[in-house]
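ASSEMBLY PREDICTION REQUEST
Request ID: AP-0331
Submitted by: J.K., bench scientist
Number of chains: two
Total residues: 829
Priority: normal
Notes: Please return the full assembly, not individual chains.
Input sequences:
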Amino acid sequence: MTRHIHRRAFLRSSLYAAGLAALTACGSTPATARRGGTLRAAFTGGGASETLNFLTGPTALDSVRARAMHGKLGTLDPAAPDGVRYSVLEGIDVSSDLRTYTLRLRKDVTFTDGSALTTRDVLYSLNAPVLLGALPYLKPPAQNFDLGAARIVDDLTLVLPAKQPIADGRLVLCQSTLVVKDATTAFMPDMPTCGPFRITEFVPGQGSTLARHEGFYGLALGRGPYLDSLELRSIPDSNARVNALTGGQLDFVGDIGPVKARTLEANKRFGVSSGQLPHATSFGFMMNLAHKPFDDVRVRQAFKLAADREGMVRSVLFGRGFVGNDLPSLGFADYAAEIAQRPHDVQRARALLREAGAEGMPITLTTGSDVAGLVEVSTLYIENLKEIGVQATLDQRPPGQLFADIKSYYQLPFTATYSPPSPPLSGYANTRTAGAPSTFGFNRPDIDALVLRARSATDPAQRREAAVQAQRLMWEEGNSVLPVFAPTINGQAANVQGVTNEPWADFSGAFLA
Amino acid sequence: MKLALFLVRRVVAAVLSLVALSALVFAATDLLPGDAADTLAGAQASQGDRDQLRAQLGLDRNALDRFTSWLSHAATGDLGTGLVGGRPVAAVLGERLPNSLVLTALALLLAVPLAIAGGLLAGMRAQRRSDRVISGGALVLAGLPEFLTVVALTAVLSTWLGLLPEVSLAPVGGRPWDSPQVLVLPTLSLMLVGVATATRLVRSAVVDVVDAPYVESARLAGVSGGRLAVRHVLPNALGPAVQAVAVMFGGLTGGAVVVETIFNYPGVGYELQQAVANRDVPMVQGLSLALCATALLALLAGDVVATLLDPRRRGL
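STATUS: Completed
Returned structure:
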């Protein structure tokens, strides 16, 4: 009897899942969405040090909780007309010279204290990472726009001058900006917020409870949030998260990794969901040009040809991943998809090493288990390198230690890395221009210039040409092997539907079937 | 008077130990590669961002300056704020330490009677089959990795029998004891760790006492079996056993990292491990200081109780 009910629920859930994405993309309510209920979810948290200040919160739980509480300018979506799906904005107009960005706010956005969202709040929110101090990934809006010269036209119109002409300003503005009320300095449970949920209780290191924000603009449009309440728990260990799910203590758990996903999938009572491109983390290996023989482009190309990308996706990520082409930002609009996929070519790789006089070279790859799957991908890559005659060994760091000493990390000859999804051009400008330590010595002012041209060209064709040219140079001569992209994999009870990952779990459209 | 003097001497020694340990912990944490700024900034941050964050966190000052500043504040009861999250260390302690103390106390409450019974039986029957079984069992249990014990307990009591939750999720805003069922598995896991060690310590204390002249006199007077064990052997073996329990209490309070991590139990051991991973020096310092103080307090209490129980040491 019980099994019969589970099977039916699972079949229902599968149908919901199939239809939900399309329905929500159209902005209509899924016909099957049920209102009510409490969803209990868990993510990696930061222990008792957690605060509600998302500007300084580095964990997945911080990001998920912040997006449940606070309104966002938008979500990066390559399929949307502007590359962005707007949230509290109606749109962003860009001047023909790419120097001026006009933000238009929705009229119906209110905070939990009843006050309306205005351009002052948005401008303050863009400034907040610099004013209040924030993690570096939140600062690109201030780096790309002259916020001091911003002009508030009225309550719903804000004009931002760009520091230099940029075509991808919408992505820069919407990638990570969450909206808080003007002059907010303290992040407390009772602070006014304009996201889909309002926080009702917060206990650092333990979790938080949130209730539906009845004034959320999505409700008037017939959308979510459908849940009455949301419980977000802090469980750092992925085994413990999965155990809590299978034990019935939770309905949804984040970032369970491909191995546990496979186990969960075998159980009809549970389902597995994963993010879609471009919201996937790149796994990669950096060759340091300060260490011979990586200064020889033939060695770098050999190392790239050695990677069995399909094998990594199949055997490490169990199919829940995407084959990479040694370029970051797979799936974004500016990604150079026209560049041919690099093959797994052992013979050619061996020949290149021979030509470079690096046959049988010894090398140690440093890796760490900071994200699920990175060690396994590294292990497989070591075997790939042995196939082309490299004496490769693995140095595995304990969890959380790969980047612990960043200065030493940047001096390693050969190391694993991972990067959250970010648009290719602004991402390059923020982190990979010549001289940045994260380039591992691949300092190329010519590529910097191409990226700058791609970002500032007013003609889309010229922009595209420069973007592809820059990426082609990186592909041919660069020092990054980026063989796979791994989306976040989540586990959930069969009756949980409508949770999206972009790249953080978003519960504004979630419901319990 | 002599007891008071003894206590004063011990307290002074404890305070000096705390200062020395603080310096040692600070140096060890500071010597670890990287710092909290690196942890927070992530790999993609520029050197400028990193330096700015380092200055914001006060990590651009030299180590001696930071330590003396921390020590002078700690002396007034201000343990500072964590670098990651900026929460007061005292607030974190207030939340986590009671949870750990309760878990440890419950584990010992179960472990001590079992250890006394087992140790007494094994000691009274040294070198016989029951001793070999008990001592061997305790040795195996002590040698088992904590992780394995926890997994086995979870598999039996949660996965197979479905009697207990696999994860210690207390209600948001509540304490673990608000949902007593979430305490069972962590307590049992910790109890097994404690009972093995304690049994062996009690056994060795009993073996030392069992050949003493006064026990022999009691035997000759016709006292035997349980009466001999409980009335004549145990009181004299309790002193060392109490001290052992005190050591265990101090050790388990801060040393239950594996158990706390697996069950997601909100204790101080797990929090300390997180702080070390984040290079959060003030948090590591504050939590370590509290754990050291707890351990020293337990040792002091153990010594006092052992002294009061031992007729030969009452005069000090």
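REVIEWER COMMENTS: Chain A has 16 helices and 25 strands.
SIGN-OFF: pending second reviewer
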